[in-house]
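Continuing the series of single-chain predictions for the mutant panel. This is the parent chain; the variants come on the following pages.
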Amino acid sequence: MAIDGSFGVEYELQRFLLRCPKLAAAPQLDNLVEKGKILTEKELIDGVAELLLHPRYTIPLLGCFRPIARKIVDRVVALLHLVPDLTSNSNDSMIEFDDGRLFKDTESSDYEQDISVINLYVKYGRGQGLHELSCLAFSRTLDMLPYLTGSVRDYFKFAPPPFKRMMEKESMAQSLVQPGTHLLDAVRVSYRLLLAEPEVFAKLWDWSCYMDLVHEITSLNNGENTEILMDIRWCAVQTLTMVLKMSDKFIRKSKTRDLATSDFGFDDEKAYGCLLRWKEFLQDVSLEKAGWYLEPFRENTSVGQPNWSNMEAKWDTLKTGSPFVLTSAVKKSFEMVLLAVSQRWPVLLYGPAGAGKTALISRLAQGHGSQVLSIHMDEQIDGKTLIGSYVCAEQPGEFRWQPGSLTQAIINGLWVVFEDIDKAPADVQSILLPLLEGATSFLTGHGEVCCS
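Parent structure:
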């Protein structure tokens, strides 16, 4: 979007092609560019919608066309609904999500130029491959834009679950004997969708095949313990813990067989390695979302890098207290904190008094259209001060609820800084702990639910 928040189809198309230069040679997109200012929103959507399904272009497409992302997703869902069979394969071989061989088989000399993804997969009888490609795109979509759950759910009204291959025991067994990335992608995509909307997808599908998957991997006697198998097992266990709402220390398969083990064959080092690889799998979307937080500081049309000189000017003109000298160290810190805040990661700011920690927080809050409330903690503060209490009303014998400082801050969307939090009494720390651990709401003594 432009710096003033406006959205222009011509400008965003040019920005998208700057991010994906190989697409500039595609005749379909070249025709859109030639339309210039007369290019309509519908023409743009029809021209770029199928690129949502290409793993290389899903993220930049959604990033550039966020204001019309719902229309793009709805268009793709409507096109997929016309596919005769989303479970067919032309042979028994497994297909990777981004099957470059299929694209290279087209008449175009450069497979990047062919953007008719759906027709291409249908032509080669790869309905199931197209389905898995779509599930990957939609899982990324929800990771980036959670409000599109309804549009994604419309797809699964006629499409099978993303783990369709696992529902067939023969296919599952074959996949485990010769493990490939197709099965790992299937469990990762399924878990990603589940994380995006647990209540929706946990009830939408029958996840019982995951119990068979965990059992098959755990009982393998071929001596293989490859990284792919470990990642498949780790992701499957995480999925089951969410679907069954149980601890991963104990999972019961059925009335006849107990699959419970203390750790499913993982030691701490292996489990941590699986977690890191999972985080790496999500990193593509994380970096894109972090870039959105830098957009307010960009004034030119360059793609990918923030205009730090422009940000320096804004830093001094906004009401952040004393003027801030934007050194290279501050620039780096600011960019790193922006990335962490965009992903709701914990951040530790440290430095001597006067180093600029408070000013940095205030600048971050203003960049998000908010303000900072500082609450100084000591031994005298109590829960009533933070949450609220009943106070005497104007009428004798009547009481009214007076929300506390923390409650008012959350209701009004303010950022809260707790000064000397280590000096707070234990009961106050117990109130703050759920919020510090990532909770998005808490109950007040008045029976209200405050959402952060």
